[in-house]
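Annotators were shown the component list below and the corresponding predicted structure, then asked to write short factual statements about the assembly.
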Amino acid sequence: MSVVAIVAVACAGAVFGIAAGYWLPPHGRIPTRNRLEPSRRILLPFTGQEISRRSFEAAVRLAKAENAIIMPAFLARVPMDLPLETALPVQCARGMPLLEVIEQRATSLGVPVDSRVGRGRSARDALRRLLEQERFDRIIVSADEDPHAGLSYNDLRWLLERVPAEILILRPAPEDTRRISVNAVSGHF
Amino acid sequence: MAAGVGKTYRMLLEGRAELEAGRDVVIGLLETHGRAETAGLAEGLQVVPRRRLEYRETALEEMDLPAILRRAPELCLIDELAHTNAPGTEHAKRYEDIEDVLAAGIDVLSTVNVQHLESLNDHITELSGIRVRETIPDAILGRADEVVLIDLTPEALLERLRAGKIYPTERIDAALNNFFRIENLAALREVALRQVAEEVGAKRLTTELVGSREESLAAEAPQAVGERLLALVEPHPSAQRLVRRAWRSSQRLGAELDLLWVRPPGRDLGKDEQRSLSALRQLASVLGARMLEEESDDVAGAIVDVATRRGTTYILIGGSRPARGLSRLRVPLPQQLMQHLPGVDVRIVAYRSQRTRVEGP
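Structure shown to annotators:
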């Protein structure tokens, strides 16, 4: 092989290397958009400042098993004397940190999260409006939530009867009272 | 801020000072609510008598607008700006009467509680759980030459209430259990302080911009208060976290929050993106943020335009994807923003859950 040919091959290799270096993202990571996108959606509604750890763990287990995305949803209640579109900063100050906690925990466990906020005259109304806007494959609720604070037993029955999704209602577990609360938020949020 | 802080008292003090300075001052309408101190301060000031009206066989007393206009003083003191008049008067609302008085060339001193401002009404109802029915358009306050805040700590106000200086004894317990709770009063105080600060800030900038000696300096006048945040979003699930963080920051700073999505021209959104966009709009609405959408190829340029137009003081952006190809040669967005928006803070929001702990030696 002549010297010219060797130099030409070397130059071509150098050009290819530089181009590849510019084209590929640092550390050879595969761009996020090329990963397998989750297709199933698991809704995890809540109304207060904490949820049962069992609901969260069930959501994470199912999401991992089904390659699903967890969709925690804070259900805000609009008083009857306010317009339905009104901003609710006081309620949001209570609900947003829990969305953050759920997102932080689920993400650290490798489960994707896409949060939602629902708004209605009651928790059920907020959930109904959310379900009208979007499709969910599963809904996970815990029966040991305070029925006066969040979804009542009637609401759970309504979910089972009316909502076209798989509903997972976790039975009360007095022996396991662990909760995930806003106090667990990492950083100043 | 609330009943009993001393609005009427302060109005009368100002009126007396003007009278002593030689101006022609009258009281157009005074509500003493039976407070002897307030009534005492009104002594010596001429009062335009109220007129009596009959409505459904009930005798009512209202401010006599025609009499004030006939009397034509230099300054008229008119209490309770947000009052709703009885049927049969010239206007439905007292602030409309006051507009007539002002139009006749008479200066007016009036009083109002912050919860009566239309734009704050919903917010205060949510804070206190009590809906105030009588409201005035914010523009009325905006037209005032001067706004004076009568500030009193919630503790001092409650002390006054308990001492019977605000309501008669039989109404004290009810008041303490309803509106006069310390958390309500603290929230109202915060809203009132912020509202007046914004009014003063807006007036200062307007005054400086219109007819000042050095308009160019005025245009760059720093805002003493009134931070405004701009969070840059995309229709993607990660934007929710960015918006939450931006909102928390805006709450701490007492700032307004805008969300901006710079949409590439002619781009069709996929189903997931449409859902994310809809969720972002819903989140913005619940949080009280404003969602803005601009169509442009030039992301940095569009952001600079919006930030300049909206008076943004703080920009929040999420971490960007690693650059590839020729885009690596471009100046990164944060640097472009810092270059074109001097004086505006730019913050890149990190993902807390991905933070790694630094091990000690």
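Statements collected:
1. The radius of gyration of chain A is 24 Å.
2. The mean pLDDT of chain A is 81.
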